[in-house]
């Protein structure tokens, strides 16, 4: 194990760092622990308090502190940390991402590390994935922090500004990552320092680190200001519903984009009064048609969103739960609302935004914990410069992971799935079934009901009950159906929450049995679901069902040329067919990594420009920069006001005017960048992406737009200052034409919902290697690809190398098709 670790480091390949130094320190912690047992609680607290410093804890201090923390954990909540938890805490204190299996005590290890940073003079924000976990963990670990003399707090969506301000002052603050981002955005737009709630970012300790840092890293958090309600014309909605697939519009092979055909364009233009959709005056109508078509064709109810309480609620695909503050941008939200005939929600203009990755990267120290990190070790190193430490389980993992079962069709897979669930349920073994969507969980629930298999369903429609439902999934005889298990954060104990419901019988039956209804796009997500079983040395098992018609295979692999030979039940056991699954998952992982890189490359320049603007804004807010600039640009007016009013009033007015114009310019710049990025996207659809480098074109235009932004803001501020209504009571913002937004709100968006460069490249690559269809008569010109535009795993490959990367059956497909021309008859 250590030899492998050293080789990985030598080759600079991500993997588990050498735990040897941590294990030695952990042994020293155990030795130091013995001398602490005679301390009273007050004495223990006093000893820790005397250790407080501003320069961080050195190695000796860490040993002493963790011995004290272990004793505090035993006294405060009755849990003495395992050696593995001490190792995890040490790794966190050195800025690592710690991989610990489910049930191994990540929460306690994280609390020790957070307290250690605090004792070393650092302020820590523990990033949780939702309000429930932030509150639960802060309250659960609270007695330990109190005994160590460390203050702790938490915030959630319902927290008031006063509560947030107080919470951020604590040594350790637990908060959902989205709330941290939203508070940063709001603080960026205050016009009085006293209105700020956040503190300078210092240490980010990220729970469910792979989910936050990788899966959600590219999600932009948005601060919007009220503008208007964005309704679609009824005639547009009705018209789109008459369009026919394959005739009036075409969907790309990945199911990510949809576009009108020439015939469809003619039909739409005729229906709207013989207009030309592509003339400037009709671009708004064209946009409405496009978003309505996207909403009607590509977004699926109970898969991408739910309709409840008269509102459209998006489903977070990473967690299978309602994304309470998430919505689609660019009119797509209104299009879905029109599709479902629910009231259209208010729209607004984007005042500012920040991605989760940019937010986390603003912290000088980043560490975190999760059950699955090594698989994304390269990305964690690439985007955050952090290494992974894999902590072995306290007890060996004895879970039995059965080989995946592959079927030809979805129907055959589902039939076998339900039969297998029935067979296992008859034994009384507890079963946890992981599905990919709300729709799938409800369909499976119907099938289980038909088979008279009692069960409970956990999906985005009843997520408020998730903790209670999941906690009882280990009770014998229980069948639990759940959407997307990633990030649930609730321990599943055999025998139920308190282990009092036939725990011994659950063990005899083989422990919790996890069944997946299909493979995920990433092996890491499969592992997260598997990890629900086999907690802390308990027995357990897992089995995944899949079919060649699953989205993973149809989207990320090519089945043409495959000659499957299923048995009577439709099951496939040959190596080539099973290899198709592994290939699809590898390609999906590569495509998602490339999507992350592409998205980050677009947001990186925007973040740099925002930093430049924020530097100027900070000087305006905290210094007299606005007064100095406007006194120079409008000297006569400035001197006149100072004579008439006191100088502090004039300075305050100048500050508000300058802040308004800086914020206004940034808002306009963001709108321009959004349009620019969409334009780059359209140009790529036209086929110029390979030769044009969209990101280079985007950066060139974005830089040109920003070059004069701050100077233009000062020019406009000076013009406003000359005419502004300023009295002894201060600036009349409304009368002076510099009003603040009447309302603001925050939400998340799905970045680039109309498809990505990686998606389009992957689709073209797949189309390029597909054998000709039987009815095809025209020769399709070969696709060419710029190396930089391909997913990393496919770069630097010539045609023969690319063929070698494909499953064996695909390499033979081209030869087969030459001999398989259809019979022709007159």
From TrEMBL:
Enzyme Commission code(s) on record: 7.4.2.8
Region (Disordered): 771-826
Sections of the chain in a coiled coil: 624-651
Comp. bias (Acidic residues): 775-807
Domain Helicase ATP-binding: 87-246
Residue intervals of the SecA family profile domain: 4-574
Recorded topology in the membrane: Peripheral membrane protein
Subcellular location: Cell membrane; Cytoplasm; Membrane
Alphabetically ordered keywords of this record: ATP-binding, Cell membrane, Coiled coil, Cytoplasm, Membrane, Nucleotide-binding, Protein transport, Translocase, Translocation, Transport
Residue spans crossing the bilayer: none
Keyword Cell membrane: yes
Key word Cytoplasm present: yes
Family that this chain belongs to: Belongs to the SecA family.
Physiological role: Part of the Sec protein translocase complex. Interacts with the SecYEG preprotein conducting channel. Has a central role in coupling the hydrolysis of ATP to the transfer of proteins into and across the cell membrane, serving as an ATP-driven molecular motor driving the stepwise translocation of polypeptide chains across the membrane.
Entries under HAMAP family matching the protein: SecA
Protein name from the UniProt record: Protein translocase subunit SecA
Native organism: Kribbella ginsengisoli
Lineage start: Bacteria, Bacillati, Actinomycetota, Actinomycetes, Propionibacteriales
């Amino acid at each position: 194990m250590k030899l492998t670790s050293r080789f990985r480091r030598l080759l600079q390949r991500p993997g588990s760092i050498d735990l040897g130094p941590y294990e030695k320190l952990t042994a020293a912690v155990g030795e130091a622990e013995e001398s602490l047992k005679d301390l009273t609680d007050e004495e223990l607290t006093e000893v820790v308090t005397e250790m407080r410093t501003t320069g961080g804890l050195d190695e000796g201090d860490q040993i002493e502190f963790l011995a004290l923390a272990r004793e505090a954990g035993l006294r405060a909540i009755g849990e003495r940390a395992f050696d593995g938890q001490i190792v995890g805490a040490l790794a966190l204190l050195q800025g690592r991402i710690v991989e610990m299996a489910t049930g191994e005590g990540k929460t306690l290890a994280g609390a020790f590390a957070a307290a250690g940073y605090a004792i070393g003079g650092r302020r820590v924000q523990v990033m949780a994935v939702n309000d429930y976990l932030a509150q639960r963990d802060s309250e659960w670990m609270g007695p330990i922090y109190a005994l160590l003399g460390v203050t702790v707090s938490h915030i959630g969506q319902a927290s008031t500004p006063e509560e947030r301000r107080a919470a951020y002052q604590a040594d350790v603050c637990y908060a959902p990552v989205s709330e941290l981002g939203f508070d940063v955005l709001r603080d960026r737009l205050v016009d009085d320092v006293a209105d700020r709630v956040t503190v300078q970012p210092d240490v980010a300790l990220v729970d469910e680190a792979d989910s936050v840092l990788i899966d959600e890293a590219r999600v932009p958090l948005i601060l919007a200001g009220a503008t208007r309600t964005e309704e679609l014309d009824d005639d547009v909605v009705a018209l789109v519903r008459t369009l026919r697939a394959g005739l009036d519009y075409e969907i790309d092979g990945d199911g990510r984009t949809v576009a009108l055909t020439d015939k469809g364009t003619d039909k739409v233009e005729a229906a709207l009064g013989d207009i030309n959709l592509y003339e400037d005056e009709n671009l708004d109508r064209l946009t409405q048609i496009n978003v309505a078509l996207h909403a009607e064709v590509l977004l699926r109810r109970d898969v991408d969103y739910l309709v409840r309480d008269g509102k459209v609620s998006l489903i977070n695909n990473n967690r299978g739960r309602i994304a309470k503050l998430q919505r689609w941008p660019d009119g797509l939200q209104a299009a879905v609302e029109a599709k479902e005939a629910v009231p259209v929600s208010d729209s607004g203009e984007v005042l500012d935004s920040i991605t989760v990755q940019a937010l986390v990267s603003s912290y000088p120290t980043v560490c975190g914990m999760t059950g699955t990190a090594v698989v994304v070790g390269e990305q964690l190193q690439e985007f955050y410069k952090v290494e992974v430490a894999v902590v072995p389980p306290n007890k060996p993992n004895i879970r039995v992971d059965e080989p995946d079962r592959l079927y030809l069709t979805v129907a055959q897979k589902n039939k076998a799935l339900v039969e297998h669930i029935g067979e296992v349920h008859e034994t009384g073994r507890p079963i946890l079934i992981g599905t990919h969507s709300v729709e799938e969980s409800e369909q499976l629930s119907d099938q289980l009901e038909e088979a008279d298999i009692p069960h409970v369903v956990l999906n985005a429609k009843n997520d408020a009950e998730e903790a209670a439902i999941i906690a009882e999934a280990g009770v014998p005889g229980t069948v639990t159906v759940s959407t997307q298990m990633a990030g649930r954060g609730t321990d599943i104990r055999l025998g139920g929450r308190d282990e009092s419901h036939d725990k011994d019988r659950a063990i005899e039956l083989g422990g919790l049995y996890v069944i997946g209804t299909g493979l995920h796009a990433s092996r890491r997500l499969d592992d997260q679901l598997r990890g629900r079983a086999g907690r802390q040395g308990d027995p357990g098992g897992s089995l995944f069902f899949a079919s060649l018609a699953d989205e993973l295979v149809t989207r990320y692999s090519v089945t043409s040329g495959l000659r499957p030979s299923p048995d009577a039940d439709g099951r496939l056991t040959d190596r080539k067919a099973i290899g198709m699954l592994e290939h699809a998952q590898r390609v999906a992982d590569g495509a998602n990594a490339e999507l992350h890189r592409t998205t980050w490359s677009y947001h990186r320049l925007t973040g740099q420009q925002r930093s430049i603007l924020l530097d100027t804004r900070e000087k305006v807010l905290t210094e007299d920069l606005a007064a100095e600039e406007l006194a120079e640009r409008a000297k006569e007016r400035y001197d006149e006001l100072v004579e008439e009013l006191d100088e502090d009033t004039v300075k305050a007015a100048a500050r508000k005017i300058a802040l308004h114009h800086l914020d206004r310019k940034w808002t306009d710049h963001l709108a321009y960048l959004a349009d620019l990025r969409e334009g780059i996207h359209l140009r790529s659809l036209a086929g110029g992406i390979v030769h044009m480098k969209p990101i280079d074109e985007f950066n060139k235009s974005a830089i040109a737009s920003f070059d004069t932004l701050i100077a233009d803001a000062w020019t406009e501020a000076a013009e406003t200052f000359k005419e502004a209504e300023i009295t002894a009571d201060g600036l009349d913002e409304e009368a002076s034409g510099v009003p603040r937004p009447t309302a603001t709100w925050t939400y998340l968006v799905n970045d680039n919902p109309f498809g990505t460069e990686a998606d389009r490249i992957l689709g073209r690559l797949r189309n390029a290697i597909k054998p000709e269809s039987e009815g095809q008569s025209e020769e399709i010109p070969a696709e060419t690809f710029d190396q930089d535009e391909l997913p990393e795993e496919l770069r630097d490959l010539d045609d023969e190398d690319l063929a070698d990367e494909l499953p064996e059956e695909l390499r033979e497909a081209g030869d087969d098709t030459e001999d398989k021309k259809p019979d022709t008859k007159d």
